Amino acid sequence: MEKTTTTSTTTATVMANERLFLSVFAALLYAFSSFFITVVNKVVLTSYKFPSFQFLGLCQVVFGIILLASGKFLKIISFPGFEWNLPRRIWPLPLVFFLNLLTGLGGTQKLSLPMFTVLRRFSILFTMIAEFWIIGVKASFKIQLCVYLMIIGAVIAGIFDLAFDVMGYTFVLLNDVFTAANGVYTKQKLEARDLGEFGLIYYNSVFICIPTFIITFSCGDITKAMEFPKWSDAWFLLFFTLASLMGFILTFSIIFCTKHNSALTTTVIGVLKNLLITYLGMFIGGDYVFSWANFVGLNVSAAGSVFYTFITFRSKTNSSVIPPCDTEPDKTRSELYHDSSLNASELNDHEKTSSMLK
Q1: Which residue among 8, 55, 132, 357 is the one 20 to 30 A from 122 at the CA level?
Q2: How many CA atoms lie within 13 A of 192 on its CB side?
Q3: Cis bond upstream, residue 92 (ω within 30)
Q4: What is the model's pTM?
Q5: What is the Cα–Cα distance from 62 to 252, expressed in whole angstroms?
Q6: pLDDT truncated to tens, each residue of the chain (358 aa)?
Q7: Is the torsion defined by CA of 90, 94, 96, 100 positive or negative?
Q8: What gap in Å lies between CA 139 and CA 153, rounded to an integer?
Q9: Residues 6+ apart with CB under 8 A from 328
Q10: How far is the CA of 288 from the CAs of 105, 111, 114, 274, 294, in angstroms?
């Protein structure tokens, strides 16, 4: 009996360590891809003055479809085939994904990277609110304090922004809303687990490809893109290709991170990588106007991000293993969501053994 207990404890410890590794790896992958795509997008749209963020978004969608379809054809990856009820099952994720893509690129083009990143921190507040209303997750008091600290810093930086752009601010604040919705609905749709990460990316891209093309064509942006004079520039082609490829990698990393972390954690990891972008962005693009008040606001907001990440990953490290179903037979889905140590994959494992959860 004692040997069996020891073996069970060891297995539980190994599983907990594996979950922690996946959680940290997913967060780091998202941080890297999110950082890199922001830089290459900024170089393409601002440094090279590429005229259409819609066309760049269309290329990112098309590249994703081609890569995933090729991977499935070569049997490198797999995901379910198309079914007629698929749009209904994943709705409204394609719409949110589409709006998130375009507003993010629009904000990148219109604003300096430091101000783009600081305004993106509003997405954390929106995510916290959305998680509470949509999937019943309530952030702890410490996490709420960190979020409010980030927002205060963002407001200070925005008030003293010497390069204020109405359209740019509108794009970014809308992008914050769609980022929050994208994270929460991705979490919700992953609970089914039948499509998988690649299937979710592929069908999202397929469903938004035609609307993206229609908008890009109707705005005359395809003509503008074709007439762009720097297509013969090797460095521009390199950055444009990287920007197109990184769209797929970023989308995968968002879903992968959301699967192994909360949507709120995914959003904040995205903000943490902005610690680098905030300071490097002062020199990338050449459109940042420095002021001390603005700089103080940037740092206050960044401090809130650091505190949040410390609290989140410390709680994950100290979290206990999920109790077996027979010790807590009456836990509902809502209560499971409120357990801060329970991520999406853990919830699905728990659901497999519980006849009460569907």
Answers
A1: 55
A2: 14
A3: yes
A4: 0.63
A5: 15
A6: 555 666 667 777 777 778 778 888 888 888 888 788 888 988 898 889 898 888 988 898 898 899 889 988 888 888 778 778 777 777 777 788 788 878 888 887 777 777 777 787 777 787 788 778 876 778 788 888 888 888 888 888 888 877 777 888 888 888 888 877 777 776 666 555 566 777 877 888 888 888 889 988 988 889 999 999 999 999 999 999 998 888 778 777 877 777 777 766 665 666 567 677 777 777 776 667 778 888 888 888 888 877 877 776 666 556 543 333 333 333 332 332 233 333 333 333 333 333 322 3
A7: positive
A8: 20
A9: none
A10: 17, 8, 7, 15, 11
Tokens of residue 75, six digits: 């049997």
Produce one character per residue of 186-218: b if its CB has 16 or more CB atoms within 10 Å, e if not.
Answer: bbbbbeeeebbbbbbbbbbbbbbbeebbeebee
Comparing CA positions, the residue from 190, 196, 204 lying closest to residue 64 is 204
